[in-house]
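Researcher: We plan to redesign the surface later, but first we want a full-length starting point. Tokens attached.
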């Protein structure tokens, strides 16, 4: 008889795990508390404008392709995407703009144009980041760090012998200062710390591998918008025979003789041979495994940063901006001090603007745009988000107006605002953190919760709050690791 798997949550990792296990021959059921799939990677409409709830940047599309290949299905019927020429357009308050191309050589040409004394340094930085990425990819990103066998591989031995090249023991900011003189370049390469919810002044220099994904491997956009990754995987899972139950919040994981044997929902027991939690791992312990001792490294973890997001329907098209845009703060150090120490938001924050309607034409009516403005923020610590929201809205409008030489206030025809509290409520992510724990210390960067329980048999974990970390590519890898360790 086929073994039965229950997946708790249909975030990107839950969907990928369900597909991988179904492809391996298991009977799979997914229980989702919301009425739709995707968790943070989902979308909604304000009037006739489509907005993505969370992620905007899509890198490493081969990880999505692999799910279709494994299932023996042609991806073209389900999912199409294209590479963006410009990964991100950067703006500084003094008027300098910089197009960060997806193509490595074009990126270097742009560096030459704007920071010509630094071109060789940037070139060497990009090569070294690529080497670091290739050294850690197989062991850190694709394997469980909590299995002895991982350390017996050729890849692990190679990484250990080259450990000094990985810049593990200095901060990302210190590494960037070793390479570059220009504060603007340091600011640009520092910003990648936010991709795992950390501060460049605290997180390890190994995080310089993150920019390699954008400036070498490239940034992509699905033809129907980024949330289509979730919807396409959902369609694939349904076609393979995975069963989905929506509006179904799991209340408890059933444990018998130190093994997970099922789940409870509305007092009804559902038996299974294997349970995979795609729920935030901290909340899985708090709510579904009451009475079970929390492992040390999640008991003392520091949550990653969160975000305040403004979703704006704009009645105009803006020719100066690209799909992804950053307007930098004048003082990056202060900005991160506010997020991680003062637990508040600096009055001159870095502003991320994304307008997917520039490339996905159906996302907004003709001549209009769907703006997504993200400001990095502390996790929810009881702050008064109503006051923060109001001040922030004024500050960012002022900043956008003065940098882009526009007057956008009258162009916003409808809006929704998301705070860390909303992120916690809507996706059950503790404190509204975007990536589970921050990677501000070496321990939190490398020793996240394993993809399996060390105390309970048949209990596994995937998603942004466990190994290898948050963000779409790592979540997809967490599902791959789980499916490989389940026999
Ligand atoms: C504003 C924002 C911007 C981001 N930007 C990017 C980006 O540009 N690029 C990038 O790669 N990543 C980005 N991220 C991070 C990325 O979205 C996440 O790392 C990733 O989507 C998390 O996926 P997950 O599989 O962990 O599940 P989640 O998306 O956290 O979903 C978990 C699912 O489980 C369900 N669930 C929870 N508990 C239960 C229960 N008890 N019973 C049933 N169902 C339950 C939830 O309802 C939810 O649907 C961003 C996130 C946010 C919020």
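Model: Full-length starting sequence:
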């Amino acid at each position: 008889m086929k073994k039965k798997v229950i997946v708790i949550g249909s975030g990107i990792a839950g969907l990928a795990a369900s597909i991988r296990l179904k492809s391996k021959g298991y009977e799979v059921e997914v229980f989702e508390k919301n009425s739709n799939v995707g968790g943070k990677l989902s979308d909604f409409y304000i009037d006739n404008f489509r907005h993505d709830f969370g992620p905007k940047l899509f890198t490493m599309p081969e990880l999505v392709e692999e799910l279709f290949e494994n299932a023996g299905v042609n991806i073209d019927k389900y999912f199409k995407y294209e590479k963006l020429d410009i990964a991100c357009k950067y703006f500084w308050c003094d008027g300098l703009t910089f197009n960060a191309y997806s193509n490595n050589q074009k990126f270097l040409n742009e560096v030459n144009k704007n920071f010509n004394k630094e071109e060789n340094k940037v070139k060497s930085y990009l090569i070294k980041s690529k080497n670091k990425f290739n050294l850690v990819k197989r062991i850190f990103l694709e394997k469980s760090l909590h299995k002895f066998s991982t350390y017996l591989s050729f890849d692990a031995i190679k990484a250990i012998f080259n450990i000094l090249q990985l810049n593990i023991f200095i901060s990302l900011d210190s590494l960037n200062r070793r390479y570059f003189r220009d504060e603007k370049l340091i600011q640009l390469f520092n910003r990648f710390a936010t991709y795992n919810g950390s501060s460049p002044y605290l997180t390890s220099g190994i995080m310089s591998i993150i920019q390699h994904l954008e400036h070498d491997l490239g940034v992509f956009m699905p033809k129907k918008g980024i949330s289509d990754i979730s919807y396409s995987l959902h369609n694939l899972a349904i076609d393979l025979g995975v069963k989905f139950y929506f509006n179904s919040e799991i209340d408890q994981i059933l444990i018998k003789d130190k093994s997970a044997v099922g789940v409870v929902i509305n007092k009804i027991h559902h038996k299974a041979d294997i349970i995979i939690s795609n729920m935030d791992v901290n909340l899985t312990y708090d709510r579904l495994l009451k009475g079970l001792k929390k492992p040390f490294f999640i008991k003392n973890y520091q949550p990653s940063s969160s975000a305040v997001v403004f979703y704006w329907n704009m009645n105009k098209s803006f020719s100066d901006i690209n799909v992804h845009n950053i307007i930098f703060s004048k003082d990056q150090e202060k900005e991160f001090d506010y997020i991680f120490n003062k637990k508040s938001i600096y009055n001159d924050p870095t502003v991320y603007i994304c307008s997917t309607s520039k490339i996905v034409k159906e996302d907004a009516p003709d001549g209009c745009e769907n703006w997504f403005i993200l400001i990095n923020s502390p996790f929810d610590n009881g702050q008064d988000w109503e006051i923060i929201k109001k001040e922030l809205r004024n500050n960012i409008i002022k900043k956008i107006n003065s940098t882009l030489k526009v007057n956008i206030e009258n162009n916003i025809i409808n809006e929704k605002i998301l705070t860390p509290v909303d992120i916690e409520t809507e996706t059950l992510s503790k404190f509204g953190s975007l990536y589970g724990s921050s990677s501000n210390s070496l321990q939190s960067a490398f020793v996240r919760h394993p993809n399996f329980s060390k105390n309970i048999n048949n209990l596994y974990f995937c998603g942004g709050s466990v190994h290898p970390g948050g963000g779409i590519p790592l979540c997809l890898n967490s599902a791959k690791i789980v499916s490989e360790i389940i026999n």
